[in-house]
Specification:
It catalyses: 1-(5-phospho-beta-D-ribosyl)-5'-AMP + H2O = 1-(5-phospho-beta-D-ribosyl)-5-[(5-phospho-beta-D-ribosylamino)methylideneamino]imidazole-4-carboxamide; 1-(5-phospho-beta-D-ribosyl)-ATP + H2O = 1-(5-phospho-beta-D-ribosyl)-5'-AMP + diphosphate + H(+). The protein has 106 residues and is mainly beta. The chain contains one helix and six strands. It has one domain: Phosphoribosyl-AMP cyclohydrolase (Ubiquitin-like (UB roll)). The longest helix has 10 residues.
Length: 106
């Protein structure tokens, strides 16, 4: 992956969708900055930028529910990332749910 092609927004962030590689479940939406993207590529585990805490966030560092990277893609405009991951522990959401997308709207 050539990180230089990625278009970060005016805050230096890019949205990332984490998708379970084995079954396609969309688990969460988070954000990365350049440093967290580089750490993700280097370690093959997901790192994000916490917008509320303003710190790098190694997914699962405290809970043990890490995300192992299987594949990373960027979209046609290079302004969004899709991470196909292996969710260790089967919980991605801070609420304890498997996916952050459990609130049905329609």
């Amino acid at each position: 992956m050539d990180i230089s092609k990625i278009k970060f927004n005016e805050q230096g962030l890019i949205p990332v969708i984490a998708q379970e590689a084995k079954d396609g479940t969309v688990l969460m939406l988070a954000y990365m900055n350049k440093e967290s993207l580089q750490k993700t590529v280097e370690t093959k585990e997901m790192w994000y930028w916490s917008r509320s805490r303003k710190v790098l966030w190694h997914k699962g560092a405290t809970s043990g529910h890490i995300q192992k990277v299987k594949e990373l893609y960027y979209d046609c405009d290079a302004d969004a990332i899709l991470a196909k991951i292996e969710q260790v522990g089967d919980i991605a959401c801070h609420t304890g749910e498997r996916s952050c997308f459990f609130n049905k709207l329609l």
